[in-house]
Specification:
There is one protein chain. Among the domains are: about 80 residues, no CATH class; about 130 residues, Nucleotidyltransferase, domain 5, CATH 3.30.420; about 280 residues, Ribonuclease H-like superfamily/Ribonuclease H (Nucleotidyltransferase, domain 5); about 60 residues, SH3 type barrels (Roll). About 35% of the residues lie in helices and about 20% in strands. The chain contains 24 helices and 30 strands. GO terms for molecular function: catalytic activity; nucleic acid binding. It holds the Pfam family RT_RNaseH_2. Keywords: Multifunctional enzyme.
């Protein structure tokens, strides 16, 4: 008896030290004494000196139907690993977690090395799990549990010690948990974590034991039990009741992981107070310690960890978009990994946000109606849940996500309806049975929840899915984008994702402004609002929808601009430019019947001027005054073979400006394709505005050119104006005037250089697929030959040929070779020469050579 008392005394002293530490923060002496008494009353629940099994009605079962038992040989272990394995088995036997077995089932053991050099004991139950019938018991969601804690002041958290090992397994199913080592077979008496249905069984046990009937003051997530109350008096009662249940069922809690009667508690990696919720500092630090990803797995791990806290991060989907380009690639490229500057900027931006207070959300006030602001763009949906409490606007939740490819192809109305319904579904735990007013910037959705049939199958399906929450919607209000700024901003990059709503001429159309109002039709969007000079991040918008126009509609002068700058910085033109003349066009009332056109190959930007006559002086004027002196000299100028270009004046200008030049082949528009492509578009569009006599075509030329330059080019994916000038084109019909904010010139220069590099790379990437598509179409069955100087060739006839006339003239002699595709040919015995493309010539084959081939 004396020996027993001497053993209990140290244990009692140790327990007293533990509970003193658990209650030392309670400042009220009486409250502290009360909690000490409670803990003493249930001291056996805190006794971790030996392992215990709970006395509960529910035992874990492993339904495997009538499948044959599976067994494998033990995996090879080194002598050091065998020593570790033997110690682990001895410990489990001592705690009655396992026992010896003669089962026909056998799963192997894996020892996984941890960073500190020790090993983790794992039984590989994959074969058993594969034949186990799945338990569909639902786990409570994090948001559901956190929302239950709203508005409560006192918290006590209890953590079960080795919680899974306290849940017994059904006797008939123990043999299925057998694992094999070099020393024999062992089977589990209690629940092992890696079994298929271990979490559902654990949650069912805890729900039935504690949570059921006590939902208003206790929540349970597996082995974490959180008791919450409004007053300290209530809290004492609630803690007593929960500890009584645990002790009766012989559950043991781990004192080192418990906290008693705190006003701030960490639960499910969140810090909870009476006012609201914030991320756990430890988890934030763990994210900050993550280095830049080197593999796809690391990138997915980072976006998963940061995504757990996305409700705290405004514009989460927008910021994460560059990383999702890496992690969400479709099809065969889904395993490819790259990490460029764009991804690193998003990575750093997230870390910056996590270290910039406040990261805090207010708990909802159930007595106050909610306000839900929603919005969508072509790429994402988002929303903000708010409440006005005592005259102060409080944010409860941020949410946003990327749209799927199918969703992004939906109409604007369908996407706006999706935003409303998706946000309501995600926030149903927060909203509960409270009323909610929804703000949207899409007027057709005003009170659409009250309509039995909206007239759109997709929208009607959304209404059907959310019919249980429709009665809670007080009103759906229309708020323009500039007023619905919080949700609107979450779905868009700066100036990105403009929605094509409808096109209409601005203002009253009169005879004087008819041409301008018609040509310069544009989409009125939410984004026509004040813009900062430079974006807060370093991203550049590279995605834009291409407007497809019917042949009877004018080219809309719409743009989806890159991040704007109000400083007029011109970029130096690079690459090739093309110069050509269009004529003769019908003589206008002002006497003009020529148009000279110059196009930049990369940006597709067009400059055009009208002239009464196409002579050398007019060509020189366009090249120098309208192009070179304004935009800088191109690297190379490709010009056609008109006399107005191949003259001494043009040659002098080209030499003086140090421009490389090349002539296109006669009668082959493909060699000057950029400008010829515009010429074709120009003619069709100009015809729409001219009178019957076409005598006013020169009046509308610049409007058509402007529409072309500010519209989205199908090949590059950008407006030519944006690529040429690196900024947004501001139409004279924009209803708002941006506030100009001048930063340091050095910052603007760095931003423009960075933006320009990204945009040009993106443009080249957009052009490349188009070239791959065009090449097979143009090059099918083509076998262009290579000719040497002195070879005799025939030249194709293009002009003045009737149907029965000769198609080829010659022979002519190859005099000079100009690159791989062009040749100078001359008529034998004369000084007359001409430039021809390789597709325009055919080699002369003499008859005796033909005869030899025939033989």
């Amino acid at each position: 008896m004396t020996s027993t008392n001497s053993e209990l005394k140290p244990q009692a002293n140790e327990f007293n030290a533990v509970i003193d530490k658990l209650t030392e923060h309670i400042t009220n002496n009486q409250d502290r004494l009360d909690f000490l008494d409670i803990l003493h009353q249930f001291r056996h629940t805190f006794d971790t000196s030996k392992a215990t099994q709970a006395h509960i009605a529910i035992h874990h079962t492993i339904p495997t139907a009538d499948v044959q038992p599976t067994s494998v040989c033990p995996f090879y272990k080194t002598p050091q690993q065998r020593e570790v394995l033997n110690k682990e088995v001895e410990k489990l036997l001592h705690d009655n977690v396992i026992r010896g077995s003669t089962s026909p089932w056998a799963s192997p053991v894996i020892l996984k090395k941890k960073p500190d050099g020790t090993y983790r004991f794992i039984v590989d139950f994959r074969r058993l799990n594969a034949v186990t019938k799945k338990d569909a018991h639902a786990q409570p969601t994090t948001e559901e549990l956190l929302n239950r804690l709203a508005g409560h002041r006192f918290f006590t958290k209890l953590n079960l010690k080795s919680g899974y090992f306290q849940i017994p397994i059904s006797e008939v199913d123990k043999e299925k948990t057998t694992f094999v080592t070099q020393d024999g077979l062992y089977e589990f008496n209690v629940l092992a974590q890696v079994l298929m249905n271990a979490p559902p069984t654990f949650q069912r046990v805890m729900n039935n034991l504690i949570a059921t009937g006590r939902w208003n003051y206790v929540v349970v997530y597996l082995d974490d039990i959180l008791i919450f109350s409004d007053s300290i008096k209530e809290h004492k009662k609630h803690v007593t009741e929960v500890l009584s249940i645990l002790q009766k069922a012989r559950f043991t809690v781990s004192p080192s992981k418990c906290i008693i009667a705190f006003e701030k508690v960490e639960f499910l990696s969140h810090i909870i107070t009476v006012a609201g919720i914030e991320p756990s500092p430890d988890k934030i630090q763990a994210i900050l310690d993550i280095p830049s990803p080197k593999t796809l797995t690391q990138a997915n791990r980072f976006i998963g960890k940061i995504g757990y806290y996305q409700k705290f991060i405004k514009n989460f989907a927008k910021i994460a978009a560059p990383i999702h380009k890496v992690t969400n690639k479709p099809g065969p490229k889904k395993r490819e990994f790259y990490w460029a500057e764009e991804q690193q900027l998003a990575f750093d931006k997230f870390k910056q946000i996590l270290t910039t207070p406040p990261l805090f959300l207010n708990f909802p006030d159930k007595s106050t109606p909610f306000i839900l602001s929603t919005d969508t763009s072509k790429v994402r949906v988002g929303g903000v849940l708010k409440q006005v409490v005592n005259g102060n606007l409080k944010v409860n939740y941020y949410l946003s996500r990327l749209l799927s490819q199918t969703e992004s192809r939906c109409s604007t109305t369908e996407r706006e309806a999706l935003a409303v319904m998706w946000c309501l579904d995600k926030l149903r735990y927060y909203i509960g049975d409270s009323s909610v007013t929804i703000n949207t910037d899409h007027k057709p959705l005003v009170n659409f929840h009250k309509k039995l049939n909206f007239g759109n199958k997709r929208v009607d399906s959304y209404l059907l899915k959310m019919q249980d929450m429709l009665p809670q919607i007080v009103e759906i209000k229309y708020k323009p984008g500039k007023e619905n700024y919080d949700a609107d901003y979450m779905t868009r990059q700066d100036n990105q994702g403009r929605d094509e709503k409808e096109e209409w001429p601005r203002g009253t159309v009169t005879w004087d402004d008819e041409a301008i109002a018609t040509v310069c039709t544009r989409s009125k969007t939410k984004q026509q609002q004040q813009q900062p000079l430079l974006p807060t991040n370093d991203t550049v918008v590279l995605n834009t929808p291409i407007t497809k126009n019917a042949s009877t509609k004018p080219i809309p002068a719409t743009t989806t601009p890159i991040d704007p700058t109000h400083d007029r910085i011109r970029r130096t033109q690079e690459g090739d430019s093309n110069l050509s003349a269009i004529g003769q066009i019908a003589t206008s009332d002002d006497g003009n019947h020529y148009a000279l056109v110059l196009t930049d190959n990369l940006s597709k930007y067009v400059i055009a001027e009208v002239y009464p006559g196409c002579i050398a002086k007019t060509a020189a004027n366009l090249s120098v005054e309208k192009y070179i002196l304004v935009h800088g000299a191109p690297e190379r100028l490709i010009i056609d073979n008109g006399a107005h270009f191949s003259n001494a004046l043009m040659k002098a200008i080209i030499q003086t400006t140090n421009i490389k030049h090349a002539f296109s082949a006669s009668y082959l528009p493909q060699t000057n394709g950029q400008v010829e492509r515009f010429n074709a578009t120009f003619s069709v569009q100009l015809t729409k505005y001219c009178n019957k006599e076409n005598s006013d075509w020169d009046i509308f030329l610049q409007q058509v050119v402007n529409a072309y330059n500010t519209g989205i080019h199908a090949k590059t994916g950008f407006a030519p104006y944006e690529l040429a000038f690196g900024r947004k084109f501001r139409s004279p019909f924009d209803s708002t005037s941006p506030v100009v904010k001048l930063p340091r010139a050095a910052d603007v220069y760095k931003y423009i250089q960075r933006s320009r590099k990204i945009i040009i790379n993106a443009t080249c990437e957009n052009i490349r697929p188009q070239q791959h598509l065009s090449k097979p179409r143009y090059g099918t069955n083509r076998k262009d030959s290579t000719y040497n100087i002195g070879d005799l060739v025939y030249v194709k006839v293009y002009s003045n040929r009737h149907k029965l006339g000769e198609r080829w003239l010659g022979p002519f002699e190859i005099i000079q070779r100009c690159g791989d595709q062009n040749y100078i040919v001359g008529e034998q015995g004369t000084t007359r020469t001409d430039r021809c493309h390789v597709s325009q010539v055919r080699q002369v084959v003499e008859w005796h050579n033909v005869a030899l081939l025939a033989d």
